[in-house]
Design brief:
By secondary structure, this protein is of the alpha+beta class. It has a domain of about 150 residues. Helices cover about 45% and strands about 15% of the residues. Strands 1, 2, 3, 4, 5, 6 and 7 form a 7-stranded mixed beta sheet that branches. The longest helix is centred in the first third of the chain and has 23 residues. The chain starts with a helix and ends in a 9-residue tail after the last helix. About 5% of the residues have low confidence.
Length: about 375
């Protein structure tokens, strides 16, 4: 593996370069040109280690707090602008952050931000109601489907008005935005609340569902993004942050593939890779100063999955909404990423002991690296 090339790719991807500072176009309604926040040096680069270990440690470490804060604030800025304009058009909505930035498993300094735009006044309630007095009839005479279609249609008009210099693409389930005064790409996702039986019992935000509008189907898709976040956070806490380290590593490996392999590797989405790391169990049980061993642990897990189709096909995503391997494209991606992990472990072992005629990857299990880069 060319670790110098990969380190350079990692550095460029993780640096936060304010895209709005590279041009002169400004959104007339929202904000002004921002300063560059390009963070050109991170602590993993200062490690007195081989380039391969630097690459692995950097790939596992979280993006800088400043870059993450900027991503969150930009998502909220766009959402606030849209909410204010929707209110003038008689739509009462709120915003909620979801996705990789919310979980801190993003691998880019300027990471895409997913913002749910959720109808406030009317929602889906699963029957039979746990408490019959908990809900009252909606005052809006429109159907929920019509409400969300109206919110989507109005949003498609408002966002170009509020952000005239931005590039805006109307996708099936979201409105994607970048450029102009936006320092990071933002996805706006119209949705309505879904209060299932579990949420009615617990009133815990983690149990609350959403229904996202799909334009192509003219229908809703149910999901539980907050349960996903809670389950991953709980598992990550149990294993001292190692779940998120593995997720970032896997996402980085896919990002650094050549374009041909990347098309195959993306058969497992970021969401799927998160689910696979979630299911690694006690393979995740390594000290923070020996996290290089996670390369071997996840390789071993993927090898096991390849050879155990019945177990592999039984695995669900953390919120239980679907099986991980629910399409044929996911298995070739698993094999490709496993092979990439194997090449990574062999390359690092060879770097550590270049004099050894036999490559012994178990040396990664014993390798100690300062953990300060993961803070």
């Amino acid at each position: 593996m060319d670790f110098n090339r990969r380190l350079n790719s990692l550095r460029q991807r993780r640096a936060f370069t304010d895209s709005a500072s590279t041009g002169v176009a400004l959104d007339s309604v929202n904000g002004s040109l921002s300063k560059s926040l390009n963070e050109s040096f991170e602590s993993y680069e200062g490690l007195k280690e081989s380039t391969g270990i630097k690459y692995v440690v950097g790939a596992m470490a979280p993006v800088s707090k400043r870059g993450t804060e900027i991503s969150k604030s930009e998502g909220q800025r766009v959402a606030n602008s849209l909410i204010k304009s929707l209110e003038t058009r008689n739509e009462n909505v709120t915003s909620v952050l979801q996705g990789s930035v919310a979980l801190n498993i993003h691998i880019k300094g300027a990471s895409d931000v997913d913002m749910l735009i959720v109808e406030r006044d009317t929602l889906f309630v699963e029957r039979p109601h746990v408490r019959s007095t908990a809900y009252v009839a909606a005052s809006d005479s429109r159907s929920l489907l019509q409400i969300i279609k109206d919110i989507r249609k109005k949003s498609e008009i408002i966002l170009p008005e509020n952000f005239p210099a931005a590039n805006i693409v109307n996708n099936d389930k979201s409105i994607a935005m970048d450029g102009g005064s936006l320092r990071v790409p933002v996805d706006i996702v119209p949705a309505v609340w879904f209060d299932g039986i579990d949420y009615q019992r617990t009133r815990s935000q983690a149990d609350r569902g959403i229904k996202i509008f799909s334009k192509s189907d003219d229908a809703f898709i149910t999901n539980f993004p907050f349960k996903h976040i809670e389950e991953v956070n709980l598992k990550d806490s149990r294993y001292s942050g190692n779940v998120k380290c593995v997720i970032r590593l896997l996402k980085t490996l896919v990002s650094d593939m050549d374009e041909t392999d990347k098309k195959i590797g993306k058969g497992l989405s970021s969401y799927d890779l998160t689910a696979l790391a979630f299911h690694m169990g006690d393979r995740l049980n390594v000290p923070v100063y020996q996290r290089v061993a996670l390369v071997l642990r996840v390789e071993d897990f993927f090898t096991f999955l390849i050879g155990a189709p019945e177990y592999r096909n039984s695995l669900s995503v953390p919120n239980g909404t679907r099986k991980i391997f629910d399409t044929p494209a996911r298995l070739p991606a698993l094999v490709l990423i496993r092979n990439e992990l194997r090449e990574l472990s062999l390359s690092i072992a060879k770097e550590i002991e270049p004099w050894n005629t036999t490559i012994d990857t178990s040396i990664l299990e014993r390798r100690i690296v300062a953990d300060t880069v993961f803070d």
